[in-house]
Amino acid sequence: MANITIKEKNEIIDRYHANPEQTLNILVDLQYASTDGYIDQATAQFIAKRLGVTETRIYEMISFYAILKEESQARYVLKICNSAPCHFSGEPLVSRSLKEILGVNENEITDDGMFLYHGIPCAGACFQSPFIKVKDRVFPNLTAEQISQLISDLRAGRYPAL
Amino acid sequence: MVVRNQAVLTARFNKLQDPTDVETFCQLGGYAGLRKVVEMNKVDVLDELDQSVLLGRGGAAYPVGKKWRNLFYAESDTKYIVCNADEGEPGTFKDMALIANDPLAIIEGMTIAGYVFNSQQGYIYIRGEYRNMHRRLRQALTNARKANFLGENILGIPGFNYDIKIISGAGAYVCGESSALLNSIEGKTGRPRVKPPHLAEVGLYLKPTLVNNVESYANIPVIIREGGAAFRALGTDKGGGTKLVCLTGHVKNRGLYEVNLGTPLHDILYSEKYGGGSSTGRPLKFIHFGGQSGPIGAVEQLDDVAYSYDDLRANELTVGSGAIVVMDDSVSIIDYLTVVAEFFAHESCGKCTPCRIGTMRILELMEKFQRKEAIPGDLEIFETMLTHVTELSACGLGQSVSVSMFSGLRLFPEEFEVAINRQTADQKEVIW
Ligand SMILES: Cc1cc2nc3c(=O)[nH]c(=O)nc-3n(C[C@H](O)[C@H](O)[C@H](O)COP(=O)(O)O)c2cc1C
Ligand code: SF4
Predict the structure, then answer these.
(1) pTM (predicted TM-score)
(2) How far is CA B393 from the centre of its chain?
(3) Is B86 in the pocket of ligand 1 (CB under 6 A)?
């Protein structure tokens, strides 16, 4: 979480009044704010101290909730849907194309650290499959050409907000 | 007065330039329910809810009137109001649509609950995947506070103090189960609690708690405004109102629709107003109702069925979350159910052994059927495994793994039959 300063971490924690009830909100917000997409140990310890809970408790949360990660993620994490409605509505095109274009399997980071793709159980975008979701943004109804275009666009930094 | 074929839940959709703006919300009937409820006798409110026959829209279809009555008579100075916006059932996106297009309707429903139960604090537990919606809700809450529809002395009524917090989920399907959800709000891992005690007695922080779905709350102002009987007339006598349904899979017009309960299923699938028929040119084969935990129906057997709680139940189907996943005849039931089995194996929280291990065994068996490597006896093992997991699991997740599997077995036995190699010897040894 090299990109977030202590001050910014404190701001996020204070937004929730350092209330242990708000641990999930705090963890999710911190992870979203980071460019490497995970909670590193120093941050986990920092949160534990600020909330007055144990580090184990924080790691218990991180390992239970699928969205929270304890390892560095790629610059762009491409989320694809694993579930039945999407699986039978063209999703295999996305996983096949990504494997081909990026040359890695699901959950593996590309050598340049730019991309990782993985399945999630549902993104609530079932009526737009095949899609790819990057952070909050859904790229809907994709064709093979659009998928490779999206990858080049992301690589070229055309989506600075993501 | 509302009439059939009139949108009630989606009435304000696309009419609010800023869906979080309180003033335009009020111009379109918003907060009329809250204004009315504070003039009513609270027991009459419960009667209206009973009259409405609003069944919980989160999936379990528990009567909302009954749930509210239980909480009403629970004795405690502190009660909590919780909105389940976890929306974990694959194929469901109606709660997201409500939050995106009319968040104040949900907040109004929760505030009415706050009034009825003298509660001071509400919580909205929202899916981690819906980050945009967190912002939308936060803005709506801020605007409601500014207009004094939340905060202290709401509507100028001394002592009517109520506010709502948002808690983000983080990608665990099981957290949609109401007791797991409460654990998650308390800042713990979201594993279900052993019930009883019921949440109306021992809920959040051990206090009596109401947990309802987003769509259930959005219906509350409608019932208060229009009356329970008028609301019931929008649906059927066994389940009132309209239902938000999410059409996905192989239909032309995938998306969200508000339908009167009792609408012919055939219309929902084929009429241009809704599904518009097959998108692939192939005949439609089966429908998965209400999410992964719901049952499956064969399209050709459902020609005369109405989309209502009673008619679906009579056909061993359910409304569930409102998901309607439609598959054409290119999809084998075995392939489909293997993906469903993967979902459950992935989402089991691991608290009870039958669910933790059983979902894995079920997945392995499905994969065996898929490879056509099953041997005589596997089908019996499969059915016994399904029964065990259903009967021995502690929460609704484990208990419903078998639902779609059993309907698949019943409707398409021939597809399982061809997956078994009858040349191999019968299994003598039982594996459990
Ligand atoms: C595994 C599991 C997941 C669930 N997920 C949800 C969900 O995402 N949203 C929801 O409203 N209800 C969900 N439910 C149902 C809730 O437990 C509960 O019945 C519901 O929130 C009550 O609200 P209602 O009566 O208004 O439907 C789930 C239940 C189980 C067992
Ligand atoms: S049935 Fe499954 S999901 Fe539910 S508590 Fe048991 S292990 Fe967890």
Answers:
(1) 0.96
(2) 20
(3) yes
May I ask the CATH architecture of the domain A76-155?
Answer: 3-Layer(aba) Sandwich (3.40)
Domain spans, chain B: 22-233, 242-328, 333-417
Residues B258 and B243: beta-carbon distance below 8 Å: yes
Q: Say how many Å lie between the first and final Cα of chain B, rounded.
A: 60
Please give the Cα distance from B338 to B105 (Å, whole number).
38
Out of B88, B185, B190, the one facing A122 most closely (by C-beta) is B88
Residue indicated by tokens 């490597």: B373
Q: Are B37 and B226 in contact (CB under 8 A)?
A: no
* Residue whose C-alpha is closest to residue B86's, from B73, B67, B99, B76: B99
pLDDT digits (tens, 9 = 90+) for B230-279: 999 999 999 999 999 999 999 999 999 999 999 999 999 999 999 999 99
| Whole-angstrom distance, CA of residue B261 vs CA of residue B259 | 6
**A138, β-bridge pairs:** A133
* Segments of chain A assigned to CATH 3.40.30.10: 76-155
CATH topology of domain B22-233: Rossmann fold (3.40.50)
Q: How far apart are CA A106 and CA B400, in angstroms?
A: 29
The rounded distance, in Å, linking the Cα atoms of B149 and B233 is 30
Cβ atoms of residues B327 and B284 within 8 Å: yes
Q: Quick: pLDDT tens for B352-362.
A: 999 999 999 99
> Is residue B337 classed exposed, middle or buried when 0-12, 13-18 and 19+ CB atoms within 10 A define those classes?
buried
Q: What is the CATH number of domain B242-328?
A: 3.10.20.600
pLDDT at A2: 66
Q: Is A8 exposed, middle or buried (0-12, 13-18, 19+ CB in 10 A)?
A: middle
- Round to whole Å and give the CA distance between B46 and B27: 27
Task: Give me ligand 2 centre to Cα B61, in Å.
Answer: 20
Beta partners for residue B256, in sequence order: B246
Work out the angle at residue B264's Cα, subtended by the Cα atoms of residues B263 and B270, and round it to the nearest 5 degrees.
115
What is the value of ipTM here, to two decimals?
Answer: 0.93
CA atoms within 13 A on the CB side of A91: 26
Q: What DSSP character marks residue A83?
A: S
Fold that domain B333-417 belongs to in CATH: de novo design (two linked rop proteins) (1.20.1440)
Q: How confident is the model at residue B427 (pLDDT cuts 50, 70, 90)?
A: low
In this structure, which residue's CA is closest to atom 8 in ligand 2? B349
Ligand 2 centroid to Cα of residue B68, in Å, is: 26
